[in-house]
Design brief:
Layout (H helix, E strand, L loop, with lengths): L4 H37 L11 E2 L13 H7 L3 E11 H8 L6 E5 L4 E15 L3 E5 L4 E2 L3 E2 L2 E5 L5 E10 L4 E6 L9 E2 L9 E6 L7 E12 L9 E4 L11 E4 L4 E8 L11 E5 H12 L7 E2 L2 E5 L2 H6 L7 E6 L4 H4 L7 E5 L7 H9 L6 E8 L2 E8 L1 E2 L5
Parallel strand pairs: 1-11
Antiparallel strand pairs: 2-4, 2-8, 3-4, 4-5, 5-10, 6-7, 8-9, 9-10, 12-13, 12-15, 13-14, 14-17, 15-16, 16-17, 18-24, 19-20, 20-21, 21-22, 22-23
Amino acid sequence: MKLSLLNQAVVLRWRAEVACIVAGGAYFMGMRWLLMVLGLSLCGSLPAVTFDTDSRQLNRAVVGASYADMLARITPAVVSIRTTATLPLDYVRRFRGINPSDIKDFDKKTGEVQMYIGQGSGAIVHPDGFIITNRHVVMLNNNVIAKDAYVILADRREFKARVLGVDDNTDIALLKVEERNLPFVRFCDSDKVRVGDVVFAIGNPLGVGLSVTSGIVSALGRSPGINSVEDFIQTDAAINPGNSGGPLIDFEGRIVGMNSAIRTQGQGGNIGIGYSIPSNLMSLVATDLANGRKFLRGFVGLFGEDLKSEEAAKLNLRGGAVLVADVTEKSPAMKCGLRAADIIVAIDGKPFENWNELRLSVVKRKPGEVIQFTIIRQGLRSLLNVTVAERPAGS
């Protein structure tokens, strides 16, 4: 059937518009990759280790597209990890049993067994061989740290890694391999992540090999009570045992979080509720561990709970509010004048959602920083400045 001249004109115009869009997109992507390559080539040695963060806001989605090119660029920076520890033979017999596949070496003189104690995933976050993973991947029963870690890259290269350090409260560990110019992946600004963003979980689930699953960010700020410091991103991307420590990335190939835990039933398989440590917290901890510092958590000495909705309504409060339940004796909170029954409604002049967000805001501050609380006491608003101290060990 022949098209009329009008229809032919419409078709020609449509084809021209599509060609312009495709050409424009190709130019934009080409320039972006060129700038990225130039940026990488300019990276030099620094007096202290720093980790890159791409802080651009995600405000668009790609519908019906393939992510193969992006994943081909990112997966070389995702590793499988196996960790070993040297344990007394009696300990192994009593608490683990003897599984020949778990034994790496046995010293007849000392009666000690070098055994595989953990398996998981990780991401290279610096070209000089810094690898971030979960603490529980390199620990046994929360008290035995791995002697060595063996890291396998997607191209099948294997390296022996040192465990530089672990942070007990965030379940983060940092490894180091003596290799340079490795492929690596950047962090994104997790404060800009939104519910509905497309994400991918990459790792070695159940030991089957490098695998990718996709989903969306289902919720933010989850606190299921797994760690003492937590602000989990929830995702429905399939996460299974072995994914621990692997990255959750966005569709541009930036680290959104670290896959760390799942809510499950029965045999421990995925049911669509996975928890990931946000990238901003990962970067803070990794920077301290890479530079030989422990991750210092802020402390002000207050305990609180979310203000009940009916009480908030009486005070015409629309945002989050925290009722101070108790104040630690001689703590910074007590010294600044904070009291039980005070209601905190803002941090540094900004509203917050709930007690967990307030608590995390304090934890992320460095000792010596000053936080300004906006409080309501007996119906009157006032400002209190509190100087953050270092969180005591074990708290």
